Amino acid sequence: MGNSPPTPRRPPVRRYSPPPPPSPTFRTPWRKLEWRNTQYDLQYVKDFKPERDAVRQLRVLLYGPVGAGKSSFINSVSSVVRGKIVNTALASATNYEGASFTKKYETHKIRKESWNSYYPFVFNDIMGVEEGSGRGVRVEDIKLAMMGHVMENYTFNPVSSLSPSDSGYNAAPSLDDRVHVLVCVCSGNTADISDSVLKKMREIREAASDLGIPQLLIVTKLDEACPETERDLQNIYKSKFVKKKLTQLSCELGIPLNCILPVKNYSHETSQDADVDALILNALRLILDFGNDFIEKL
How many other CB atoms are there within 10 angstroms of residue 67's CB atom? Predict the structure, then answer.
């Protein structure tokens, strides 16, 4: 019998495997930060002095949507500078029906080690920017605050703006009363900002620009929105989610990306964390530098 032809081999069955999902982080940080340089930054803050003798204290005004973490940011700055967790600016853990917790115009100072001695920069917290008319802080009142016309402990009225005939009106503001840096605070863990709130925030920005006041944007709660950042805070400048969120806010508010700083506020912590401190100090240094440049031109 002749040789039978060889049985053809069947090609191996290739199992399809879907490509791996894209990484949620970049290989290298899209912005550099010296995470272990906190002592140098802290000393810079402690040695800070306003450029002009006529200004005894640099004034930073915080504004933004309800629940963004304005009061918590003040507490976080105080905690980093004083070296212990403090809670000087009362903050609410919840937002009842989206209403602002802060009602009054209050100046927050940071005490030095010696009694009755304070650092030459202060923070003013105000009522949150709320959706619709007759709710939250009025844009006109923020404009007056920037010019120094709002007196300490003035209670904001969502329905009526402060007028020169009111007892809370400062008719002759000093250079110290004026705002030297305007800081918008937004949450990175909320849905898109409503058109109504965005419109108010843009009006506030335009008023500050007319006055020549420098502006920054602080973005909080990104660790709550981004698992990679929650796992390791040093991933905040590697996270694709964080960069996308900051770019979105930049487009919506018209604030340059290099003037937008992500931070994590102290919230549940009972002791300090070096990575939290690094982000807070990075933001604080830029705030002080921007304010000093403005004071120099006054």
Answer: 23
Percentages (nearest 5) of helix, strand, coil residues in the chain: 35, 15, 50
DSSP code, position 275: H
Question: Are the beta carbons of 154 and 162 closer than 8 angstroms?
Answer: yes
The reported pLDDT for the residue numbered 100 is 60
Distance (Å, rounded) from C-alpha 189 to C-alpha 173?
A: 37
Instruction: Look at residues 112, 97, 260, 272 and name the one whose alpha carbon lies nearest to residue 186.
Output: 260
**139: phi then psi, degrees, rounded to nearest 5:** -60, -40
Full-model pTM = 0.89
Of 247, 260, 106, 125, the closest CA to residue 168 belongs to 106
Would you place residue 19 in the very low, low, confident or very high pLDDT band (cuts 50, 70, 90)?
confident
Q: Provide CB contacts within 8 A for 119, sequence distance 6+.
A: 45, 46, 48, 81, 109, 110, 111, 112
Residue 212 pLDDT > 80, yes or no? yes
Q: How far is CA 233 from CA 13, 129, 218, 246, 258, in A?
A: 45, 28, 16, 16, 19
DSSP string over 196-243: HHHHHHHHHHHHHHHHT--EEEEEE-HHHH-HHHHH-GGGTTTBHHHH
Tens of pLDDT, residues 55-74: 999 999 999 999 899 999 99
* Residue 98, SS3 per DSSP: helix
At 155 the three-state DSSP class reads strand
Pairing label, strands 215-220, 181-187: parallel
* 3-class state of residue 262 by DSSP: strand
CA distance 134 to 144: 18
pLDDT tens column, 82-140 = 999 998 766 555 554 455 666 889 999 999 987 889 999 999 999 899 988 888 889 99
